[in-house]
Amino acid sequence: MSVMSSVMRGTRRLVHADPALFSNFPFPAVFCRAGNHVLEALLNTSVHLDSLEKDTVLEERWIKEVVTRSGMKFRWAKLSASRERPNRDACRRPPADPTLLVPRPPVVTIMGHVDHGKTTLLDSLRKSQIVSTEAGGITQHIGAFLVQLPTGEKITFLDTPGHAAFSSMRARGANATDIVVLVVAADDGVMNQTVESIEHARRAKVPVIVAVNKCDKPHADPQRVKQELLAHDVVCEEFGGDVQAIHISALKGDNLLALAEATVALAEVLELKAEPTGPVEGLVIESRTDKGKGPVTTSIVQRGTLKRGCVLVAGKSWAKVRFLFDENGCAVREAGPSTAVEVVGWKELPSAGETILEVESEVSDVDGSVEAILNILDSYDGQQQCELEVVHFGIGDISENDVNMAEMFGGSIYGFNVAASRGIEQLAARKGIPLRLHSVIYKLVDQLKEELSAKLPPLVSENITGESAPHGHVTTAELRWSGGVSVRSKSAFHPC
After folding, report:
1. For the chain, which residues make up each domain, given as ranges?
2. What are the tens digits of pLDDT across the range 50-108?
3. Among residues 1, 174, 182, 227, which is most buried (max CB within 10 A)?
4. How far is residue 200 from each of residues 184, 270, 352, 451, measured CA to CA in Å?
5. What region holds the Tr-type G domain (predicted)?
6. Hey, do 105-271 and 369-455 end up sharing a CATH topology, with the first three levels equal?
7. Going along 143-192, which residue ranges are E strands?
8. Are 356 and 327 in contact (CB under 8 A)?
9. Cα→Cα distances 388→165, 179, 379, Å
């Protein structure tokens, strides 16, 4: 009776226990389907049912005993521990020591309504002919140019599109600038995109200089333009505000020096400075694919000095700088703060507006692809059947070192969105190293699964389907491969 009482108490305790109790057992399905067997197994052991509590965890030997006596087979699963990897995300440096800062040229954005003379103004400032090369006379991209005045001061100008279709690009231009020059035609006045430009500058907290253009036109009325601007909280100096307004004619080049001097004076008030040393920080102004140069960006350096050979990251893209070109297409050796340069060497195009950061080497995980693939490999749970070991991972094209390492460990090389030169392919073929390159990640994973399946050990099972007369018997054997391939064989045995 005492034994039965103990069993009943234990049964009630297990049945009415908190559900968390069952989560502690490695065999919850067994508990649901074979509860009586579990109790019987525990009853015939030295485990005291009265001692079981909500947080009780059975010893390994009793778990094996219960599972075996319940008619089940146990198998210990190896829990894959999460791999701790250092954070390789590139990030901005802390603010520089004020003693290390030096004056830098202002970055000025030309904004305004379409056909109000923005590109013509830049043509006059840098003595070039951009309008003649643009489709329909409308600027189709953001350009960046360094202009040096006769007095020696330098100004970096950003030419943003005025067409309404490029509103978002204008927003990026405003956020990359120190000063906005708002061009308004004296014969046309404040228009829709003029108001949009004012809003972009206001959101970016950038001061504005008004360039009242086309003052040479017969119906020009600069005073009306400045009065219309009052309705948008742009108050010029003659109305008691702090916004400089310069009357110019971009086509004839009238009063452009006064506009440049006003820009330099405002830059002096802003006390623009930057640190010319240390890792580079900058901004992508535009990106495109050049037929001869490949992926190219027009970029503004904001901190540090950009040089050939630097390794840069921008969003999900990275580059090892091969060439730097100025606004005239001439190769330059370096570019300091506020300098606009064309950067060649990107592996893929970054988006305009992305932040550029310099890193020490090419093995910072810039695009997240390596991390994503490693996370997939971490989920592999067949180590007991076929061990999977990642001996090396990195970023960039397949190298000779990769082939040598694969040969040393008897492994395969998998590449995602990278290339292998003809010499590397021939080297891998000579050494018998599988080289598997993919541009779609799920295809890479599928091929890896196929390779692992092919290396799994065979599972052999033999079933006797019948016996012949006493003089001999026939046996049918079935050989099954865990990879999914099935081979059947049949043999006959006869007495001597």
Report:
1. 2-69, 105-271, 369-455, 458-493
2. 676 666 677 777 777 777 777 777 776 665 555 555 555 677 888 889 999 999 999 99
3. 182
4. 16, 19, 17, 55
5. 103-273
6. yes
7. 143-148, 154-159, 179-185
8. no
9. 52, 57, 11
The Cα angle at residue 277 between residues 108 and 348, in degrees rounded to 5: 70
Total-model pTM: 0.57
Cβ proximity of 322 and 356 under 8 Å:
no
> pLDDT per residue over 324-340, tens digit each?
998 878 899 999 999 99
Give me the residue label for tokens 């064989």. 489
Note the residue count of the chain: 496
Nearest to 213 by CA among 254, 262, 248: 248
- Sign of torsion over alpha carbons 464, 469, 473, 475: negative
The answer as to CATH 3.40.50.300 being correct for domain 105-271 is yes
Per residue in 248-294, pLDDT (tens digit) is: 999 988 998 899 999 999 999 999 999 999 999 998 888 888 888 88
Which residue, among 197, 234, 346, 368, has the nearest Cα to 286 in the 3D structure? 346
Q: What's the CATH fold of domain 369-455? A: Rossmann fold (3.40.50)
Which CB contacts under 8 angstroms, 24+ apart, belong to 425-433?
427/400, 427/403, 428/398, 428/403, 431/403, 431/406, 431/407, 432/407, 433/403, 433/406, 433/407
Instruction: Give the torsion sign (CA, 68, 70, 71, 72).
Output: negative
